[in-house]
TrEMBL record:
Family the entry assigns: Belongs to the class-I aminoacyl-tRNA synthetase family.
GO CC term, one of those recorded: cytosol
InterPro entries: aa-tRNA-synth_I_CS (IPR001412), Glu/Gln-tRNA-synth (IPR000924), Glu/Gln-tRNA-synth_Ib_cat-dom (IPR020058), GluQ/Sye (IPR049940), Rossmann-like_a/b/a_fold (IPR014729)
Protein name: Glutamyl-Q tRNA(Asp) synthetase
Database matches in SUPFAM superfamilies: Nucleotidylyl transferase
Length: 284
């Protein structure tokens, strides 16, 4: 079986130890399997992506000893492909326009049902304010769009399942029941104001186009993976094998964030650390 994996950072800040862990795991797995390690630049959010960060990513990864084939793929070059995937979902009657702001959603969920989870992979779970009783007809509007989760799961007609070689945050494996998804993920946004397609949609289209067979990513993305597997089913795309790895935390147990400059690879480089030091720090 062929093995193609990728590392897909967003050029919105410096790479830190957590990124290095994902990238090295993916790179080493590909090397072990005689496979291919691809680098993709997730620069869909043009308001936050910067060429300087992209250059820094290339620099840091090369310094870590990683290499990848050229040319690399950039999401900002692929917007028409994402629009066409959105059209497919629209034609299936699975999307609806929604212009609720974050504040609207916060106000609507201020009195949640007892025991209902408040947060999904993208923040507050959408309470369904704009969800129509029947799928909207006519051409797809140029507006923010959400996936009608219950309708999408019914349309797929089976539970979205995938092979997991790691584990989710609570030891979950790759079986997702539709009722869990409606409750814990809800109607996610697939097209956002000013940004076009969302991360969830673009990543699924890109992974399929790049024939990715193995996705290696942090456990923080486990619930996002459930959305991706559902979208693959709806769009008729293959589902890769997923490996969700442990998260790299600081001494206090807090997850590293992009703004955590103290743990940026560039900072360690400037301090005179070697790539071997970084691997050792990561337990690799
Ligand atoms: N750009 C995403 C990130 O950096 C990609 C993660 C993924 O799809 O595996 O979190």
């Amino acid at each position: 079986m062929s093995f193609i994996t990728r590392f897909a950072p967003s050029p919105t800040g410096p790479l830190h130890l957590g990124h290095a862990y994902s990238a090295i795991l993916a790179h080493d797995s590909a090397a072990r399997e005689n496979g291919t390690f691809l680098l993709r630049i997730d620069d869909l959010d043009q308001t936050r992506s910067r060429p300087e960060w992209e250059t820094q990513i290339f620099d840091d990864l090369s310094w870590l000893g990683l290499s990848w084939p050229q040319p690399i793929l950039r999401q900002s070059d692929r917007l028409p492909l994402y629009a066409s995937a959105l059209e497919t979902l629209w034609d299936q009657g699975l999307l609806y326009p929604c212009s609720c702001s974050r504040a609207d959603i916060r106000a609507a969920v201020s009195a949640p049902q007892e025991g209902a989870p408040l947060h999904g992979p993208d923040g507050l779970i959408y309470p369904g304010t704009c969800r129509p009783a029947h799928p909207p007809s006519g051409p797809m509007p140029d507006s923010p769009l959400r996936l009608d989760m219950a309708r999408a799961l019914a349309h797929l007609g089976r539970a979205p399942a995938f092979t997991e070689t790691g584990a989710g945050p609570d030891g979950e494996t790759g079986l997702i029941t539709p009722s869990t998804m409606t409750r814990t993920v809800g109607d996610v946004a697939l097209a956002r104001p000013g940004l076009g397609a969302s991360y969830h949609l673009s990543v699924v289209v890109d992974d399929a186009d790049q024939q990715i067979t193995h996705v290696i990513r942090g456990r923080d993305l486990f619930s996002a993976t459930q959305i991706h597997v559902l979208l693959q089913g709806l769009l008729g795309l293959p589902t890769p094998i997923y490996h969700h790895h442990r998260l790299i935390r600081d001494e206090t147990g807090k997850r590293l964030a992009k703004r955590d400059d103290a743990r940026a690879i560039a900072t360690y480089r400037a301090e005179g650390k070697t790539p071997q030091d970084i691997r050792a720090m990561l337990g690799l």
